[in-house]
Amino acid sequence: MMTEKSSLKRFFASKLQRRFFLYFSGVVLMTVLFISVAVYHFQTKMLLKQVQNKAFSLTSILAYSSLNAILLDDYITVQMLIDSMSEGSDIRSIAILDTAGCVIAADQPGLRGFVFSDALTKKALTNNIFLHQREKSDTGEEIWDTAVPIYNLNKRIGTARIKYSVDDTYKGLLQTILLIGLIAFIISLVISFRFSASISRPIADVVDLAKEYGNGNFDASIDIRRDDELGHLAMELNKLSRKLQKLIEEKIANENLIVLGEFGSFIIHDLKNPLSGLHLLADGLHRKLPDDSPLKKYSTEIVLAAQKLEDFTRRTLDIARSSKLYVSDVNINELIRQVVQDLKKLSVPLFMELDPVVPAIKADRQMLYMALKNLIINADEAVEGDGKIIVKTQALKEIILKISDTGDGIPQERLETIFRPFFSMKDKGHGLGLAMVKKVIIAHQGRIEVHSKLREGTTFTIYLPYTPTNTISSGNAIKDN
Question: Histidine kinase domain spans which residues (predicted)?
Answer without folding.
Answer: 266-468
